[in-house]
Amino acid sequence: MRTAALTIALAALALVAANFATGAMRSEKLAPRLCETTGGGRFVGIPGSPGERIDRRLLNDVRMLKRKYKIFITDGYSLDPVHSRNGEHPIGLALDIVPDIRRGGSWKLISKLAKWAEPRQNRPRAPFRWVGYNGDPGHGRGHHLHLSWSHSETRYNKPARTVYSLRCPTPAKPKGDGGKANDPAKPKNTKKGQGKSKKKGKRQRKNHGGVKATPVPATGGITPRSLGRRLAPPQPETGGVTLPQSR
Ligand SMILES: [Zn+2]
Question: Are 154 and 218 in contact (CB under 8 A)?
């Protein structure tokens, strides 16, 4: 009997190891707008946002945000020192956002998104981990909105093992299918460097304070807090100013 149990245990272990080796992705829907995904992290180009990259597990969220809130992404995955080193830009789990005016975007829509993502100051709705907008230095209406997604502890420039998102990601097509699978993670345009000349602050305008979000009770009952201590602690950004490291 013990041998059988051991065999099963070993088989399970082998499966885990295989998942690690292939970077396999496991997603679990925790709530209508909350998905937990372990494995499969990779920095990829964002379709329709030349030069911008993100952890591929957020692509479905990004697509939804673009469609619904007409966002224009000014930065995603980035090792630029203007971003907090311990924040989510260097691990591809943050977006800096302004309105996509050409597609009908507006600050009104961005404010709506900010208010939805963070109904009360510093109490973001899961899966968001930190939201930078009105009331946060270097962020806000007329400046930019920062969204960070919750994740397990990780290191600088290394995809987090576990990520929380609004929508479950589309699993990547397994390798060996000719490589031309309809993988949304694959940047359509792999040429690097083009249009990447943006400078921080080029869009910066004076923050007039904007509209203060009215507190709205969070629905769903799942807050980043209730996801437990698997989450890395929030890392607020000071808007282009890297916080001094406390070590
Ligand atoms: Zn940011």
Answer: no
CATH-assigned architecture of domain 34-172+218-234: 2-Layer Sandwich (3.30)
- Which residue ranges make up each domain of the chain? 34-172+218-234
**DSSP secondary structure letter of residue 129:** E
Closest CA to 169 of 13, 23, 9: 23
- Report the percent of the chain where pLDDT is more than 70: 61
User: What's the gap in Å between 19 CA and the centre of ligand 1?
Assistant: 31
- Distance, CA 93 to ligand 1 centroid (Å)? 10
Please say whether the beta carbons of 166 and 61 come within 8 A: yes
Ligand 1: distance of its center to the CA of 237 in Å?
7
pLDDT band at 94 (very low <50, low <70, confident <90, very high): very high
Q: What's the pLDDT band for 203 if we cut at 50, 70, 90?
A: very low
Tokens at 139, concatenated? 């962020």
- Rounded-to-5 percentages of helix, strand, coil across the chain: 25, 20, 55
CA 117 / ligand 1 centre spacing (Å): 15
Q: How far is the CA of 42 from the centre of ligand 1 (A)?
A: 19
| pLDDT on residue 60 | 98
- Report CA(96)–ligand 1 centroid distance (Å): 5
Report the separation in Å between the CA atom of 232 and the middle of ligand 1, taken as the mean of its atom positions.
17
CA of 224 to the centre of ligand 1 (A): 19
Say if CB 94 and CB 76 are below 8 A apart: yes
User: Rounded to the nearest whole angstrom, what is the distance from the C-alpha of residue 16 to the centroid of ligand 1?
Assistant: 34
